[in-house]
Specification:
14 helices; alpha/beta; five-stranded antiparallel β-sheet; binds alpha-D-glucopyranose
Length: 503
């Protein structure tokens, strides 16, 4: 069987605003990302996912799109995009772009027309609101001067489309074609379990992602992904789509990745799991039992960076657990999604001053929720300067970076075998070698309750989630370890890859 490229791919999320700034305005851009592609090649990833760079008033960092077929001047131009794709492809890196189909910007021409009373059926207007809440806090409805209300499951600047209108459906097929024709290898689909809302928009008791929610995961959405899949399949080169799907159960998640729908969906259960062998084992078993092609993710631009998550649960363990979770995830069947900066071991920046915070979650909750700026602080490339190499000299980035970022920069860590960055490089290089020879299937090996030990052919991965050292399983050699694996012992909060003895 031919294995599709994405099945085992390691995909690196570039949060464009915070990756690298070439233009010198303090905000990351496409030209900056292009200049830094060699970092990703050296890191050893297979693909990049670019977060939205489309024309946008930036009510939600670009997830409010005013023109789905153009680049915002803040991020560059279509020519910059084409150059980035060409360079990435020349380096052997695939490129995924973000598609935002649940909502547009309130500055999208369709919504502007709707405000004038034209074509309101492309959005969701009512003469009175229901009790739905915005994901960012506060009501999900905003009242217009003419007395009508429109629905926005996120910021008021993000009106929800009416996916029951065939015009919306046709428009998105055309947007996909536009980017496929420009050479993208696939799409990350924003809020993929959104789009359709239950007829009549009934009030809810609970707005979580349960199976029969009127807000999320309506059955009609699957028809859309079947159409998208048909379109993707007409293009050469294994174009793919990965859905941002939040659900309460692996069974609901599996619906999105049926053979004629999306290729992958993010497995958020992995990042939501606490540091526990039992919890990890359950997520792994549930995932492998329900989805044909698994994915794993520990961090992204919406959640607290995993170093800090683990550290908060047990001070002193964050970085070690983060590396062990990475090694585990890279040994599991399927594909892995990395978030920019995790290869540097960046922590969440928790002490951003309120006046610096820009996330609508912070703004809409009137400062009650910290929001997501803390995982979006611009990346440090060099040990010093005004922005640690993020922007050209003398420019301050859009979010302030902490002093600790200097020592964590790419340049500071390069060449230091003890650094997180060199550990990531070794892990990805080793995986690249192994992936050709190991089977997809995972086999659990005996272990005590606080340790996970599994094998894929000749590779054995062991991770110690307990409180004392454990004996390493039988092995020929140690391939890679997050820390010392001396005297045949694996310390707590560490993981190891072993070469299995030939039997
Ligand atoms: C997704 C994005 C997030 C954005 C939201 C609304 O969850 O990842 O950043 O705020 O959708 O588009």
């Amino acid at each position: 069987m031919d294995i599709p490229w994405w099945r085992d791919a390691v995909v690196y999320e570039i949060y464009v605003r915070s990756f690298a700034d070439a233009s010198g305005d303090g905000v990351g851009d496409l030209a900056g990302a292009r200049e830094r592609l060699t970092h990703l090649k050296e890191l050893g990833v297979d693909a990049v996912w670019l977060t939205p760079f489309y024309t946008s008033p930036m009510a939600d960092g670009g997830y409010d799109v005013a023109d789905y077929r153009d680049v915002d001047p803040l991020f560059g131009s279509l020519a910059d995009f084409d150059a980035l794709v060409a360079d990435a492809h020349a380096l052997g890196l695939r490129v995924l772009v973000d598609i935002v189909p649940n909502h547009s910007s309130d500055e999208h021409p369709w919504f502007r027309a709707a405000l004038r009373g034209e074509g309101r059926d492309r959005y969701i207007f009512r003469d009175r609101p229901n009790n739905w809440q915005s994901t960012f806090s506060g009501p999900a409805w905003t009242k217009l001067p003419d007395g009508m209300w429109y629905l926005h499951l996120f910021a008021p600047g993000q009106p929800d489309f009416n996916w029951r209108n065939p015009e919306v459906r046709a428009e998105f097929l055309d947007i996909l074609r536009f980017w496929l024709d420009r050479g993208v290898d696939g799409f990350r689909i924003d809020v993929a379990m959104g789009l359709f809302k239950a007829e009549g928009l009934p009030d809810v008791k609970d707005q979580s992602f349960m199976s029969d929610s009127p807000v999320w995961g309506r059955p009609e959405v699957h028809g859309v992904y079947r159409e998208w899949r048909e379109l993707l399949d007409t293009y050469p080169g294994e174009r793919m789509a990965v859905g941002e799907v939040w659900t309460d159960s692996p069974e609901d998640l599996a619906l999105y990745v049926r053979p004629d729908e999306l290729h992958q969906s993010f497995n958020f259960a992995w990042l939501q799991a606490p540091w526990s062998a039992t919890a990890f084992r359950k997520v792994i078993d549930d995932t492998l039992a329900t989805v044909p092609f698994a994915t794993w993710v520990l961090s992204n631009h919406d959640v607290v960076r995993h170093v800090t998550r683990y550290e908060a649960a047990d001070p002193g363990t964050g970085l070690s657990r983060a590396k062990a979770a990475l090694l585990t995830m890279l040994a599991l069947p399927g594909s892995a999604y990395l978030y920019q900066g995790e290869e540097l071991g960046l922590p969440q920046v928790e002490d951003l001053p309120p006046e610096a915070r820009q996330d609508p979650v912070f703004v809409q909750s009137k400062g009650e929720l910290p929001g997501r700026d803390g995982c979006r602080v611009p990346i440090p490339w060099s040990p010093g300067g005004d922005s640690y190499g993020f922007s050209p000299g003398g420019v301050r980035p859009w979010l302030p970076q902490p002093g600790s970022f200097g020592a964590l920069s790419v340049a500071s860590q390069t060449g230091d075998p003890a650094s997180t960055l060199e550990f990531y490089r070794r892990a990805l290089a080793c995986r690249r070698e192994l992936i050709r020879t190991i089977p997809y299937e995972l086999e659990w090996l005996p272990s005590d309750a606080d340790t996970l030990v599994f094998a894929r052919g000749p590779l054995v991965c062991a991770v110690n989630c307990g409180t004392g050292p454990v004996r390493l399983p039988p092995h020929e050699s140690v391939l890679l370890a997050t820390g010392p694996a001396e005297d045949g012992l694996l310390p707590p909060d560490h993981a190891v890859w072993l070469q299995r003895p030939v039997t």
